[in-house]
Amino acid sequence: MNPFLKAQKIGFLGAGNMAQAMIKGLIEGGIPVRNIYASNRSQGKLQKLVEIYSIQGASSNEELIDACDIIVLAIKPQDLLSALEPVTRAFDSTKIVISVAAGIPMRQLEKYISGGRLARVMPNTPSLIGKGVIGYLLNDEKDNALESTVEDLFAPLGKVIKVSDEDQFEAVTVSCSSGTGFVFEMMMYWQDWIEERGFSPEEARQMTIETFVGASALAAQAREGIEDLQARVTSKKGVTAAGLQSMRELEIERALRISFEKAAMRNKEMGREIK
Ligand SMILES: NC(=O)c1ccc[n+]([C@@H]2O[C@H](COP(=O)([O-])OP(=O)(O)OC[C@H]3O[C@@H](n4cnc5c(N)ncnc54)[C@H](OP(=O)(O)O)[C@@H]3O)[C@@H](O)[C@H]2O)c1
Predict the structure, then answer these.
(1) Which residue's alpha carbon is at the smallest distance from atom 32 of ligand 1?
(2) Which domains does the chain have, with CATH numbers?
(3) I need a labelling partner for 32 at 20 to 30 A (CA). Which of 76, 196, 221, 229 fits?
(4) Residue 275 — very low, low, confident or very high, per pLDDT cuts 50/70/90?
(5) For the whole model, what pTM was predicted?
């Protein structure tokens, strides 16, 4: 973990699932617990977290912001702006503010946190087990110190990817965050078909999971691209080739692309709905 980060006070405004995954990663990465703070709406949950990780509990969001150099906004998008409203004055240009809230664009965050160094981060759900894809956008693309701070903070959660604008941020949201849900949808089709062939639900579940994990692990360690790997498992006029030909005739790619675009449209719409 970078020495700069070790000396910073890092606060989590909202102590739910995402905050807990990050806190665990930071502690394992060597950030001293005396430098990790959290505040939360319900005090019971906060107390539990303080006890489990021996971090510092802040009695209010304002106290947390005052005490910390880096503030991670880790509350649900629909609660975020009303939570920020009473504390906007506590932010100043020395603070780094990182929002993990989906659907709240940078320009809207800037209205509440003026002059601060800001990052928007989109971790997907596998981040909760350290296997995520985490996209991030900075309000100042040339702020190298902020860039390495975000990279180091989120590295324990998975693969961290810098994006250059809101469009790319949306692409990460759709393909990696919603994408996790899309992959589950396909896994459900797999499992159903296997069960129909007489396997128990548990066997079908395992066969599905291992097929997806195996294909992903192979792709992750192979030097060649996914297309070449596919060619390696496909012999001419063979079983796989017959299935693939059908997938192409049925235009699965087109169906998926339309679904991605629909998700992107909903992402924009949600950004407009959050007031
Ligand atoms: N979980 C994921 O996989 C995931 C993935 C990508 C992005 N995110 C983003 O991460 C953020 C947090 O998600 P999550 O899954 O961690 O949600 P969560 O488990 O519901 O945690 C949110 C926490 O925020 C607290 N909170 C709400 N209003 C507050 C306020 N005004 N002041 C202080 N604390 C407040 C809640 O307190 P209570 O205990 O009172 O409810 C709750 O503990 C969201 O913006 C979400 O979009 C999550």
Answers:
(1) 41
(2) 3-163 (3.40.50.720), 172-273 (1.10.3730.10)
(3) 76
(4) low
(5) 0.91
